[in-house]
Amino acid sequence: MPTLPNDQLHPTPTQRSGYQYLFTAKHHGADRNAAQWLPELSLEEEFAVFDRADQFEIADDDGWLFGVRPEGSGLRELGTWSQQVAAFPYAREGRPWHGYPLLPLDNLAPQNRQGERLRPSKDVFLKMEAAGLITKRQRIQLMKGDHA
Fold it and tell me: What is the pTM of this model?
């Protein structure tokens, strides 16, 4: 898996909020215990997931953003553990955001990454559905922790 030699700031902020985005080496191969973006997913595709999450305000009560990448009638896998939903933890004012593939996970993922505690709230999935990013069927599957 190719790694980023160091963190890289995306040159363009998000369209809606003007957020800066940081591609982190940690989630691009530098830390094998951390969630990893798929190597074949370009940095521009990763940023597009973040930009779309911001555009449609797919956020939870803590200000975290969540994104997906629709592909045909399904969702593209984003991470090396078959994740289809990415999380972007809240960043303080003036700080760049970063993200990583979150869920659902395949059986290769570490046990400490699995379970409901890491799953976004129902409201997050309802916002994705309202924005047309996922279907009702996909929302139900993702809320159960299944692949959509």
Answer: 0.91
